[in-house]
């Protein structure tokens, strides 16, 4: 969170929504938090101030990006099973703390070093609604990410 606490991030989210913007709200844990088994506690701590501040209708203009800090630009990525488990836990948390309707409707994207080699398996998971692609979008391999999306 670039040194900003959860409360400030939630306030910035609300200001952006009130200005009519749609927002990608990124959450995620550091490597030591993943290894300690506290991934969902960290994500819940990041989501809680937003859940208190936003109205249920505000969430229609928010997408959540689960972006494990340990995977950003490192080439490391969560396995599809790890990512799915976290996405499902985020969706369950949203159902419990915001509403079942918001939890069902909200887009939760994976943003941890998705690339052509892993996109198909990640995007096949039921709670992963898309990918937040950073630097990889500038490489030719990005076409392999696009091709990993299953046709509807």
Describe how the helices and strands are arranged:
Blueprint: H1 6-18, E1 23-27, H2 31-35, H3 39-53, E2 62-66, H4 80-97, H5 100-105, E3 107-110, H6 116-123, H7 142-147
Parallel strand pairs: 1-2, 2-3
Helix pairs in contact: 1-3, 3-4, 4-6
Please supply descriptive tags for the structure shown above:
152 residues, mainly alpha, 3-stranded parallel beta sheet, 9% strand, globular
Characterization of the model:
- With about 150 residues, the chain is mostly helical.
- The chain is built from seven helices and three strands; from the N terminus they run H-E-H-H-E-H-H-E-H-H.
- The protein has helices spanning about 5-20, 30-35, 40-55, 80-95, 100-105, 115-125, 140-145; strands at about 25, 60-65, 105-110.
- The chain has a three-stranded parallel sheet with strand order 1-2-3.
- The radius of gyration is 15 Å and the shape is globular.
- The mean pLDDT is about 90.
Provide a compact summary of the structure.
By secondary structure, this protein is mostly helical. The protein contains seven helices and three strands.
> Which word captures the global form?
globular
Give the averaged pLDDT, no decimals.
Answer: 92
Oligomer: single chain
Question: What low-confidence regions span 5 or more consecutive residues with pLDDT below 50?
Answer: none
Strand content: 5-15%
Structural class comes to: mainly alpha
Major sheet: order of its strands?
Answer: 1-2-3
Helical fraction:
40-55%
- C-alpha-based Rg, rounded: 15 Å
Order of helices and strands: HEHHEHHEHH
Would you report the number of β strands?
3
């Amino acid at each position: 969170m670039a040194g900003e606490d959860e409360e400030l991030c939630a306030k910035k989210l609300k200001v952006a929504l009130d200005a009519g913007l749609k927002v990608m709200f990124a959450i995620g844990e550091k490597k030591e938090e993943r290894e300690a088994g506290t991934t969902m506690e960290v994500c819940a701590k990041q989501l809680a101030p937003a859940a208190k501040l936003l109205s249920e209708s505000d969430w229609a203009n928010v997408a959540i990006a689960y972006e494990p800090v340990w995977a950003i630009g490192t080439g490391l990525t969560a396995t599809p099973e790890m990512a799915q488990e976290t996405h499902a836990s985020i969706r369950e948390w949203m159902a419990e703390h915001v509403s079942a309707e918001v939890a069902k409707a909200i887009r939760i994207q994976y943003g941890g070093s998705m690339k052509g080699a892993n996109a198909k398996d990640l995007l096949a998971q039921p709670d992963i609604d898309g990918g937040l692609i950073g630097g990889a979008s500038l490489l030719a391999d990005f076409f392999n990410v696009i091709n990993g999306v299953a046709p509807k």
